[in-house]
Amino acid sequence: MAACPIAKKYGVTTASRVFEALAICKDLVIIKPRMQRFSHDKTLRASLYTRREDIEVVLLELCIEVCRRARRLGVQGRVVSLGMGETDGKRANSINRQLTLTNPTSLTQELSEAVMRLFNEYWQGLPASHLMIALNQLSSDRVQQLDLFDNRHKIFELEKTTDAIKDRFGDMAIMRASSMLEAGVARERAGQIGGHYK
């Protein structure tokens, strides 16, 4: 029993339960769940994020994280989602919008352009208290749309290299200049695990 792959991965107890279930119900099929989407979100102090430029910095940082996770698992997404909570203390508004891209992507530039388009179209000017970016309808990144006038492959390889540097030396090893602004949260997030300080 200990030599079977299920026991190695999940333990002997779990493996024995799986085999018992298979013995009882011969029609039982084990289906491995597939990742449906990637998302990152950040709760903000609304009093600090009142200007468009400050909110855009955080949106870009969230796009970077979503794309990095997608590339790590070898997937790309076709549907971009923006979620946003805004409040000024008297009024509150919640925005949840989606945009379908022409081609699936895991490139930060393409994702951030779509997110900024949604943000500029639907933001009502209230201070931002919560931001969420998601990439849906995932597919393998081994299949890329070729374009004679585009250098997507070079950009993809550059972003993979950036990911490798961050994986080896930490999230603070390489980051965009906008993350060094007061509105940036990437430096703060780099010192956290699951939203909590290390």
TrEMBL record:
InterPro entries documented for this protein: DNA/RNA_pol_sf, DNA_pol_Y-fam_lit_finger_sf, DNA_pol_Y-fam_little_finger
GO MF: damaged DNA binding
Pfam family, one: IMS_C
UniProt xrefs under Gene3D superfamilies: DNA polymerase, Y-family, little finger domain (3.30.1490.100)
Domain of life: Bacteria
Domain DNA polymerase Y-family little finger: 38-148
SUPFAM superfamilies per record: DNA/RNA polymerases, Lesion bypass DNA polymerase (Y-family), little finger domain
Any one biological process term the GO annotation gives: DNA repair
Protein name as it appears in the record: Putative DNA polymerase IV
